[in-house]
Amino acid sequence: MREKIKAILFKLWITLSAIIVLSSVVFIFAYITKNGIGSINLEFIFGKPKGIPLGSEGGIFPAIAGSLLLTLIACIFAMILAISTAIYVVFYCESKKIESMVHVIVQCMAGVPSIVLGLFGYTLLVANLKLGRSLLSGGITLGIMIFPFIQVRVEKTLREINFSLVNSSYALGVSKSYTLFKLVLPMCRADIVSAITLAGGFAMGAAAPIILTAAVIFAPTPKSLSSPVMALPFHLYILTGEGISLEKSYATALVLILLLFIINILSLALTFRRKELK
């Protein structure tokens, strides 16, 4: 009887939790859509910020382009570090101490507040390496932020592959590097791309790391890696914080949410495709 009551309470708990989470997401999306949809048109999507104060009129295209480029650079930078770290831990590291040390470092990096990462990026990239407040500085800082997320998921994916295939490859005299590039990575491609895509969504919505390293109130669409950029989260922060235009703020937030939805849907599609192939 007691176990039955526990099962009912547990089911009630998880059901209520799911309802609260889903209701919150739906409410936030509906509220932002209601307040922002009226300001969205072609001029808003493809135009530049205008008006006095700047941003009270016009559009947000430079911010959309800046956010997409920052996300792209962050994903490339983080992907290179994360995949190589995961491969080293799973296939090359023979010391449990080093493996534990790598895990501790990755976990510590995941716990660093994003504003602290922004300060680190400003000190290292902007001030010391003289990269300036630029697309490259912001992309690298965002890449450091999402590196732990990608590394953990890629390592998990590599550990879940069928190692009998890998051992069979070794037994046939195939080198470890050839096995990795021709057998292991192709098997994990969808999961790795899914992890990178999700991490890209995380990077696109972050404002704190780019406040000191890349974002400015106004800039045209960047033409080089050394150009400062506009970004949607920072533009939203300025519009709201300075009280420039609440309607434009909601519209900017709606565009940002829609871009994140698209990225997450792409990631889910890749995950489902992977499961179907299995």
Walk me through the structure.
The chain is built from 11 helices and 2 strands. The chain is globular. 76% of the residues lie in helices and 1% in strands. The mean pLDDT is 89. β1 and β2 form a beta hairpin. By secondary structure, the protein is an all-alpha fold.
Helix content: over 70%
Shape: globular
Order of helices and strands: HHEEHHHHHHHHH
Strands side by side in the biggest sheet:
1-2
Structural class: mainly alpha
Q: Give the low-confidence spans.
A: none
Task: Give a short synopsis of this structure.
Helix 5 packs across helix 6 and helix 8 (176-204) packs antiparallel against helix 11.
Brief descriptors of the model:
single chain; 278 residues; mainly alpha; two-stranded antiparallel ribbon; 11 helices; 76% helix
Give the SSE layout:
Elements lengths: L1 H35 L5 H5 L2 E2 L6 E2 L2 H32 L3 H15 L3 H15 L6 H25 L3 H9 L4 H29 L3 H4 L20 H10 L4 H32 L1
Antiparallel strand pairs: 1-2
Helix pairs in contact: 1-11, 3-6, 3-8, 4-6, 5-6, 6-8, 8-11, 10-11
